[in-house]
Amino acid sequence: MNDTARPDTKILADPFPDARRQGRLLAAECRACGHLFLPFGPVCPRCWSIDIGQRQMSGAGEVATFTIYRQSYHPDFPAPYVLALIALAEGPRLISNVIGCAPEQVHIGMAVSVRFVPRGDQVLPLFVPVTSPARNPEIQGDTP
Ligand SMILES: [Zn+2]
User: Of the candidates 4, 19, 31, 76, which lies 20 to 30 Å from 125 by C-alpha distance?
Assistant: First the structure.
C-alpha cells in the first residue's frame, strides 16, 4: 500500500492520466448534445447518450465555491489548505485545491488557472490564482 494521497483511479475509472502528465486538462464531451462534463462518465448527465468523447479544456476558470480546511486529516494535506469547486471557462466544474496563495486570499469568483502537480505516480490538476505572486518551483507548467 502506498501512503501518498491521490485519487484511486480504479474507483474513478479516470481515462485521462496520460493527458495530465502531458499538461492537458480534458473533459468528457457528449457527441449527441455537446454537453461538457466532469468527472468523466460513460453516460451524458444531460441527455443520457452513451456516445461520449473528450475535449481539451483551456485550464482557465474561477472559484465557484470553496472551504478552508484548518485541520489535517492526512499527512499529504497539511492544514490549512483550500478545497474548491472550480468552474472551468468551458462550463464543466471539478473539485480541486487552490494553491499558490494564502487560503484567506481565495474568494468566490477568483480567476484561476490549472497547474499540473505531480503526486506519487500521478499528476493532479490543481489551480492557482491568475495573478499569483507566489510560484512553487515544484509545480509543472508554471510560466513566468
Ligand atoms: Zn448529451
Answer: 31
* Residues in the 5 Å CB sphere of ion ligand 1: 30, 32-33, 35, 44, 46-47, 49
- Span from the CA of 7 to the centroid of ligand 1 (angstroms): 26
Inter-residue contact 87 to 108 (CB < 8 Å):
no
- Its pTM stands at 0.80
105 secondary structure, DSSP code: G
Quote the ligand 1 centre to 38 CA distance (angstroms).
13
Report CA(93)–ligand 1 centroid distance (Å). Answer: 16
Q: Model confidence over 46-100: pLDDT tens digits? A: 999 999 999 999 999 999 999 999 999 888 788 999 999 999 999 999 999 999 9
What are the sequence ranges of the domains in the chain? Answer: 9-129
Q: What does the pLDDT read at residue 61?
A: 97
